[in-house]
Amino acid sequence: MTLQFIHGGVDRNGASLHFHIRDGRISGLNGDARPDNGAECVDLKGFAVLPGLVDGHIHLDKSFVGDRWHPHQPVNSLRERLAVEKAAVAGAAPMVDRAEALIRQCSGFGTVAMRCHVDIDGSTGLGHLEAVREAALRCADIMCIQLVAFPQAGVMSCAGSAAVLEQALAAGVDVLGGIDPTTLDGDAEGQLALLFGLAERYGVQLDIHLHEPGETGLAQLLRIAARTRAAGLQGRVAVSHAYSLGEVPLARALQVGEALATAGVAIMSNAPGDHPFPPLRALHDAGVRVFAGNDNIRDCWWPYGNGDLLQRAMLLGYRSGFHTDADLMLALDMVTSQAAQVIGLPQYGLAEGHPATFVAVRADHGPAAVAGVPVERRVVVDGRWL
């Protein structure tokens, strides 16, 4: 039996924290403040002990982390971007190696779980899925990875996508994706009927990329909310990006937010640098689950990112005008508890009997960690210090 006594640190709220790690699990959380006989003492004075970070949206198959630098190439359309990406990825280092490099880099910052969108459509087949799955297996001891079948090239407008998506689901993919049913596919009802039908048949979650603007995007969100209620999929559907919620007056966004909250549809944002994005605090206060992820990291879409979710939480707060501790805590929740709930991570968080999986950061508490993005961190997964 391995036994450690963790003391001296504080929790996300700044309150004193101590516990034992017994065979990889948390024991005696804030109980007797003395170590059990034979326990190794670990002093975390000056550190805030946070739940492991959870990336709610990442693309492991696209990143060039682990490869040479690839200069960004400007394009004039989405279809051009897809063509540039396909050529660049084909000439890059093996996908499985790049994906593994990014997983390990994210782990070093304290990420313990992620939802990974993998290109799976009629133009790509299942090749990306096979590579990312291999990388996930290589890193299974440090990272829990949920895979999304993401039809990047379209569902209705890309020949063969529907069949390949179903193949991925039959092969055990956890989540079904979608993308811009109107502006990319030109058939909103057709795409959504197909996606929701497959989700019901295979019992999987849905996570739909939605970049559509203004009222077009809002109409899509209302369709998704209505179909979610009709299918009984409350709490199992997410929309990633939902830029339209940040492109309309707040009152209008909250009208749609009410429908999303009623349907249990979650909203993911990564605070994109050059785009309006949803009013996160207002949506949260209206009952919408909001969560976050790094999205693209150093790939054909943009050259930015390193996989640090605390940095991502800081960017969310910075762009949202979050100044109070309560607002900063919401940003932290978006990369911890909220993301964990969306992906259905079992036994998550610092609780009695849960796996001893956490990140300790040099900070006074959670809000200070978001605002300052401390460099000094200690990452523990199932009681193992990485």
Task: Note down, in words, how this protein is organized.
The chain is 36% helix and 22% strand. It is α/β, with parallel strands linked by helices and 386 residues long. The strands form three sheets. It has an eight-stranded parallel β-sheet, sandwiched between helices. Strands 3-2-1-4 form a four-stranded mixed β-sheet, with no helix packed on it. It has a four-stranded antiparallel β-sheet with strand order 5-14-15-16, with helices on one face. α2 packs across α3, α6 (214-231) runs parallel beside α7 and α10 (325-334) crosses α12 (366-372). The longest helix is centred in the middle third of the chain and has 18 residues, at 214-231. The protein is globular and about 65 Å long.
Low-confidence stretches: none
Shape: globular
Question: Count of helices?
Answer: 12
Helix content: 25-40%
Number of strands: 16
